[in-house]
């Protein structure tokens, strides 16, 4: 078996779809051809990567692929299957990076848990948004909106200043059926995103030029309803 014959068979080989005779021929070639066995290793790594998307990338995978791409970029043109496999492995390695939102979600969930420790929930205790809103004056470099959601079953409990990504943000606290909803608010933009994190529901959305991250042990449906009510409250203050 030559390299040209071996390359097209590699994919079927690593998937276990090659018949025994051709597998044996191919293995004979792989035993003596470093370039084809590297291509096989890349396909195997790709297969593992796709199976374990939630796991960390294999140690050194990205560096290995980068090195290989650099080498090939300077040398002779590579056979297509290997080049394709390398690009795919590289793309998968990039997919492993946690989205920035996952880090944020971790932070707001930690903030939520911290707030449930004794005496941490609110620094200003009031169900009146006209009391809660001025509280932030001088503590934050922005004036957070404090929507009144009483009619939709979310009672304002109060607020506090919290820290997310190293900046001070407003944490508004609401309760629905005795469940605490922490809402972290700061100016900015965000696409809507719903996550489950350690048993907590997390929902981020944007309204009126502010980013909202709501965390609670309520379910996503409740947080969606929370979002709808915030958006409509801010649209008609
Ligand atoms: Zn070969």
How would you summarize the topology of this molecule?
Elements: H1 3-14, H2 20-32, H3 34-51, H4 61-74, H5 80-96, H6 100-115, E1 124-125, H7 129-135, E2 155-164, E3 167-176, E4 179-187, E5 193-197, E6 200-207, E7 210-216, H8 220-235
Antiparallel strand pairs: 1-2, 2-3, 3-4, 4-7, 5-6, 6-7
Helix pairs in contact: 1-2, 1-3, 2-3, 3-5, 4-5
Percentage of β-strand residues: 15-25%
Work out the number of β strands: 7
Secondary structure: helix percent: 40-55%
Shape verdict: elongated
CA-CA gap between termini: 76 Å
Radius of gyration: 27 Å
Which consecutive residue ranges, at least 5 long each, have pLDDT under 50? 73-80
Question: What molecules are bound to this protein?
Answer: zinc ion
Largest sheet: 7 strands, antiparallel
* Averaged pLDDT: 85
Lateral arrangement of strands in the main beta sheet: 1-2-3-4-7-6-5
Question: How large is the count of helical segments?
Answer: 8
The computed structural class is alpha+beta
H-E order: HHHHHHEHEEEEEEH
Protein model, in words:
The protein is α+β, with helices and mostly antiparallel strands and 237 residues long. 48% of the residues lie in helices and 22% in strands. The chain is built from eight helices and seven strands; from the N terminus they run H-H-H-H-H-H-E-H-E-E-E-E-E-E-H. It has a seven-stranded antiparallel β-sheet with strand order 1-2-3-4-7-6-5, with helices on both faces. Strand 6 and strand 7 form a beta hairpin. Helix 1 packs across helix 2 (20-32). The longest helix is centred in the first third of the chain and has 18 residues, at 34-51. It is elongated and about 80 Å long. Zinc ion (ZN) is lined by residues 3, 6, 29, 33, 35-36.
């Amino acid at each position: 078996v030559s390299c040209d014959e071996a390359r097209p068979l590699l994919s079927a080989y690593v998937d276990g779809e090659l018949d025994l005779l051709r597998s044996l021929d191919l293995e004979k070639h792989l035993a003596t051809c470093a370039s084809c066995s590297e291509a096989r290793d890349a396909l195997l790594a790709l297969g593992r990567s796709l199976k374990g998307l939630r796991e960390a990338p294999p140690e050194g995978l990205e560096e290995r692929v980068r090195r290989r791409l650099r080498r090939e970029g300077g040398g002779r043109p590579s056979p297509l299957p290997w080049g394709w496999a390398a690009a795919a492995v590289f793309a998968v390695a990039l997919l492993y990076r946690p989205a920035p939102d996952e880090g944020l979600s971790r932070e707001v969930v930690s903030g939520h848990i911290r707030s449930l420790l004794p005496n941490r929930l609110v620094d200003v205790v009031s169900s009146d948004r006209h009391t809660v809103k001025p509280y932030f004056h001088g503590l934050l470099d922005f004036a957070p909106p404090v929507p009144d959601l009483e009619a939709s079953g979310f009672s304002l409990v109060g607020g506090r200043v919290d820290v997310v990504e190293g900046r001070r943000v407003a944490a508004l606290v609401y309760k629905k059926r005795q469940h605490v909803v922490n809402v972290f608010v700061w100016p900015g933009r965000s696409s809507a995103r719903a996550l489950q994190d350690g048993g907590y529901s997390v929902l981020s959305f944007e309204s009126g030029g502010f980013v909202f991250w709501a965390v609670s042990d309520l379910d996503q449906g409740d947080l969606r309803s929370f979002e709808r009510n915030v958006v409509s409250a801010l649209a008609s203050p």
